[in-house]
Amino acid sequence: MRYEKRKSKNKEEYYSFLYWDPKTKKRMRLRKSEVPADIDTDEKAESFCKLKEAELQNFSLKVKRDLEWKRKFYDFEQLLELYAKRRKTEAPNSWKTDVYYLEQYVFTFFLSIKKSNNLHSWENYFEDLRDWLEKDAELVKQKGKNLRLAYATKNACIKALNRFLSTMVRQQKMKGPVSRCSMFPKHQLNRKGIESYITPAESQVVFEKLKEIDKDVAEFYWVLLHTGLRLNECIGLAASHVFKGQPSEVNLKKMLDRYGLNSILHIVLDSQPSSNEGIRSKDGTVLRKPMKHRRRIEPKNNRIIPVSDKLAATIIAERFNAQAALIKAKTFGDQRGNYLLFSGLDKNRVSNKMRRAYELLGVAAKSPHDCRHTYCTELVALTEGHHFLAKYVLGHSDISTTENYLHLWEVIQQKMAQDRQVEDTIDLDEIIEG
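Structure (tokenized):
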């Protein structure tokens, strides 16, 4: 523990204290709220340092004992690294999230709350884990705000646990067969409701307002609404993904013809940017990774998205043409995947400008992902509940995800019917005479 004198924004001098955290193994600084307000001399600062040093030494011993206890049967840090390496190959897009849930919630429950350092005994606490996730677990990133986990997050924790134990059996770190912790039922999962649907009238006024704020974001918003692309997919939309006319894929073309969906142009999506930040490397190459639910970037994993809306097709075509000069000049090399239609946009800019537009309109804000929900809802309705087409175009891994949108469309229709009923009233004479 040591101290140093610093100056605040008001040029007032104060004492700041630094220490080595044995748990995080990082140099840390005490918050101002953790430092007594009456420390105004070097002597007082030195005395406070000694007091905190004694506390830290005691804490360090406790951390050491806990670590020894945790390593009695297994080195959990090593197991976590082993699991992370395995998941990285199995799920290149989501492995980090999976490891995060395992470390922050599953390990916290078994190692810190239940004090169970033997993997073979974990199955005895499965129901306790579910109960803890249900009643006591809070969002780690929002600690202190008493925010409960969503059911989707609770199930993600349970999935991480089941995968971890199965991996440990395969890696011969424990004997199988291993029991599986049961998930929370699907009806409890948080589904998007009618409040996430963007009506045609709302989309038009938001688009006009966005044009006043940021034309690039306005056009991005309109393309999101009429392609169903995920935010990151649209940010990574490149010249290599855009083609004129109807898609050539036979089965998809038949389905589009069946429902009268005239594709002005179409997108063949093969990948997405590997990061929300720093999309390009130093040589201008766009760093890419497989799309969600895909392990590799390869033709069989491509997703074909027809674009039927005239304005969305015009926006994409104009931006595609704008890249032509850059492609000819080989600004970012020979690969057309490096020439982004929405170059310069990122997640924060899009989200912030959309939020601002809704604020100015005095309407409850919608997220960029609500554009995807809206597109899927309308596609399912347009195709009379034909789930396969929506599943194929949107890239859902599970048909039950697509089916949720048919339910949402039925709710929207019921709401519209209720509104009409209030306006028109019911003719009682017609009922009696009938």
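The beta strands are 2-7, 13-21, 26-29, 242-244, 265-269, 272-273, 288-289, 303-307. DSSP finds 16 helices and eight strands in the chain.
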